[in-house]
Amino acid sequence: MKNFSVSEMFADHLVLCHDRENPVWGNAPAGAEVRVRLLCGSAVPRFGGSKGEENRGEDFPRAEDAPAAKECGVLAQAGAAADENGCWCIALPTPGPGKGYELEVCCGGQRVLFRDVAVGEVWLAGGQSNMEMPVMCIEGGRELACADCFPDVRLRTIPRVCQDVPQHGWHFQPIRKGDSGWLLPSRDHVARFSAIGYQFAALLSRTLGMTVGIIDCSWGGTRIQSWLPEASINAHEDTRGDAADFERLRASLGEDPGESFRRYQASLEKLIADTPDMVERSLENMMYYTKLERVIDYPAEGALGDPNRPGCLYTHMVARTAPYGIRGVLWYQGESNALVGEADRYAVLFGRLLESWRTAWHCELPFLTCQLSVFDPFRWGDGYDWVTLRARQAFCADTMPGVSMAVLADVGEEKDIHPHRKIPVGRRLYQLALRDVYGLPAGDVFPPRPVSCAKRGDSLQVSFDAPIELRSGDVPYAVLSGTPVPCQTCQTDDCTLAVRAGDADGVWYGQSEWFNASLFGKNGEPVAPFRIEAG
Questions:
Q1: Nearest-CA neighbor of 517 among 500, 505, 530?
Q2: Cβ neighbours of residue 62 under 8 Å, at least 6 residues apart?
Q3: Dihedral over Cα of 21, 27, 31, 32: its sign
Q4: DSSP per-residue codes, 241-270
Q5: pLDDT above 90 covers what percent of the chain?
Q6: CA triplet 452, 456, 461: central angle to 5 degrees?
Q7: How would you list the strands of the sheet with 87-93, edge to edge?
Q8: CA–CA dist 32, 1 (Å, integer)
Q9: Partners of residue 479 on adjacent β-strands
Q10: What's the pLDDT tens digit per position in 39-55?
Q11: Lowest mean pLDDT among 58-67, 197-206, 446-455, 465-474
């Protein structure tokens, strides 16, 4: 028989989405009645506690003995019985935005109380290291973390776990195993949090005038297969092959697969003890983390603790988060799938992720995605294909309902896969949210797109749907059957490029892993890489 408990997603300072039903869930003895109430802050007695105040004594009234809702300051309430497996899930309707509330969950004579609850907006930030990268490691991070007045945001990081055993981790900083719950903004909390997620939430809160909760559910270096549920992995031949490849890799390790993981954990224990000033040192030098990661004894690929086992991050991170009420997902991932022979699969895999996550949340979640920025991966060797990966990301945004894409062609760094200009990324995602999710004016802040390519004498003229500006850099060029040909490129009017070539059938732009962006909108936003054929 299961004891009464509430999901770990709920803690003091939590944020619920306004004007909708928010799932609240947990365990209880089969058939036991569970009741959830959202209360005004002064409507209930207060007890000490951090994750939630608990009173298991008989002095607390049972639900049937509680005062009338109006007298008790109850803003919303709902109840349900635990099923035969001892699981319960209650849809709690919430009012409009506000804060200073308390969330009360009762079962028999037991109660859990969460304090300082806000009702506003909640988003989830997912993906790999560029979403994970914290404020203290970016350009402008010190100003964000040391602000005199913080925005009305609340921060939640899902523990990065890829197996049943809790683990320390390295995520631009040594992270001690365990769950920190929901956090209010402070210098250290902001400094250690996803820079993109924080910037997005801060801008959104100021515009909407309400509390915004942001949940970081990311892990560096991970392939998209890790974020798919095992049911999806097992249902398709290609991902069954991915899973089999991983198990063969693990079996090939000459030592106990757990020994490598234990050494990794020991090196992190020492690093955590040796770096009590991690935040301050990082705010002084955003590259400080690069000195620390050199001393980490990383586990072997395929060992225990490797987050790239297909399905493991869905099982241990996503499934523990869903179906918490969120408005949508920010997604920055793909670098680890940008390989020859794999990049071409990305649209299919992303489509499966979209379907499985929307199923887990029981709604058509909007996804605001980031197209990979520019970078030269060939300094590490051969076998990379960022060009195809970017094209598949653009395809997803163009063809899949509820998917939008931020273009990042101007924020990359040739020799660093982790560009430090994350503030513009958060801003572009925020602008996408205003336009595509909230239906609010976002201004003239979106990049032009090519709409046609026509032969005019010895030139190909490419027309755009908004004014453009051609700058110095790697300019669009002519191709014949996919092969570049000698050409001259110039801008002929606000919305047109002319690419002069003797014989050509199309124009390409940004078709390499690293390139110097030259094509922008008059609004300063970068045009996405493209290939367009003469019509």
A1: 530
A2: 106, 108, 109
A3: negative
A4: HHHHHHHHHHHH-SS-HHHHHHHHHHHHHH
A5: 88
A6: 35
A7: 5-6, 21-27, 87-93
A8: 11
A9: 484, 506
A10: 997 544 333 333 444 43
A11: 58-67
**121, pLDDT greater than 90:** yes
Angstrom distance (rounded) from CA 10 to CA 14: 6
Helix axes 195-208, 423-436, angle to 10 degrees: 40
Mean pLDDT of the chain: 93
- In order, the DSSP letters of 480-505 are ETTEE---EEEEEETTEEEEE-SS-S
Cβ pair 115, 39 in contact under 8 A = no
pLDDT of residue 57: 30
Tokens of 76: 């919303």
Q: How confident is the model at residue 72 (pLDDT cuts 50, 70, 90)?
A: low
Contacts of 254 (CB under 8 A, 6+ apart): none
**Residues 6 or more apart from 369 whose CB is under 8 A from it?**
331, 332, 393, 396, 397, 403, 404, 405, 406
Mean pLDDT computed over 197-216: 98
The tokens for 138 are: 């970016």
User: What distance in Å separates the CA atoms of residue 328 and residue 93, rounded to the nearest whole number?
Assistant: 18
Task: Report pLDDT for 258.
Answer: 84
Burial class (CB in 10 A: 0-12, 13-18, 19+), 211: buried
Task: Show Cβ contacts of residue 6 under 8 Å, excluding neighbours closer than 6 positions.
Answer: 24, 25, 26, 52, 105, 112
Query: What is the dihedral angle through the alpha carbons of 111, 117, 120, 125, rounded to the nearest 10 degrees?
Result: -90
Task: Give yes or no for residue 372 having a pLDDT over 50.
Answer: yes
Q: Is the pLDDT of residue 449 over 90?
A: yes
Asked whether the whole model's pTM tops 0.90, one would answer yes
DSSP states of 331-400: EE--GGG-BTTTGGGHHHHHHHHHHHHHHHHTS---EEEE------GGGG-S-B-HHHHHHHHHHHHHHS
In this prediction, residue 216 has a pLDDT band, given cuts at 50, 70 and 90, of very high
**R_g (Cα) of the chain, nearest Å:** 25
Alpha carbons 69 and 72: distance in angstroms, whole number: 5
Beta strands in 10-109 (DSSP E): 15-17, 21-27, 33-40, 53-55, 74-81, 87-93, 98-107
Measured distance CA(101)–CA(92) in Å, rounded: 14
- Decide if pLDDT at 248 tops 70: yes
Cβ neighbours of residue 50 under 8 Å, at least 6 residues apart?
Answer: 11, 12, 181
Query: What is the pLDDT at residue 176?
Result: 87
pLDDT of residue 165: 82
Q: Could you tell me where the beta strands, DSSP code E, fall in 84-188? A: 87-93, 98-107, 110-127, 153-157, 169-170, 174-175, 182-183
Q: Tokens representing 174?
A: 């040594």
